[in-house]
Amino acid sequence: MFIDSHAHLTDTRLLSEIEKVRALYLSNGVTCVLDVGHSIQSSIQAKKNAQTFEEVYYSVGLHPDVAGSVDKTSLDKLIELSSDKKCLAIGEIGLDYHYLDYSKEVQLKAFTSQLELAIKLKKPVIIHSRDACCDTVNILKEYSSELNGFLMHCYSYSKETAKTLLDLGAYFSFGGVVTFKNAKKEDIIKSIPQSRILLETDCPYMAPVPFRGTINKPEYMPYIYNKVASIYGETLSDFCATVKNNFETFFKI
Questions:
Q1: Which of 9, 43, 170, 192 could form a cystine bridge with 37, CB 3.0-4.6 A?
Q2: Is 90 exceeded by the pLDDT of residue 154?
Q3: Class of domain 2-250
């Protein structure tokens, strides 16, 4: 019934009790989880998780906080890891200018090289973008016509930017933040067609209300679905069907 389109089951806080985590999300109606790689090691583990659990898929990628590790060796490793049929995308990749662990120049090179890899592999991309709106949009304007789809993970920019990205073919994913009292996401979500929406936990981060401040888990997906369904004025069952169709369409399942 519920799909978590962006989770980090590879995080030690979840991986250490993965059987319990899995039992709880299955009992709460979560039927599919995309385990997202953000480094070589996490991408390796995400593949293992997907091979172990039927409902788990995975992606591989190098997050901007490891941008300095993007070279021919690491890109070749991503190609190797992505060969399994359960690998749905390249990601999460992108730009993060909030902490600037690596310079903008290093991040831009890492981002574009992975976009080019995704084009070569004919896979969609999952994009992380934080405090880097202009550069992200400009790069996507350059590459969007060649990409096999791109998903704006945990979308945090304006509805005006969303319109620009929609015109480039973007899908958008929202997580637990939508349940926060001062999140002010309603207008942005309403500006995005339901056919372009996916939902996520981004666990173990950003748990929804009433679990805010705790370790996030896929079992909390119903809280996110209920909130976004209410924003669109849809019944939960109809909205679940829409998101399932979106997930299968975007990731070509």
A1: 43
A2: yes
A3: alpha beta
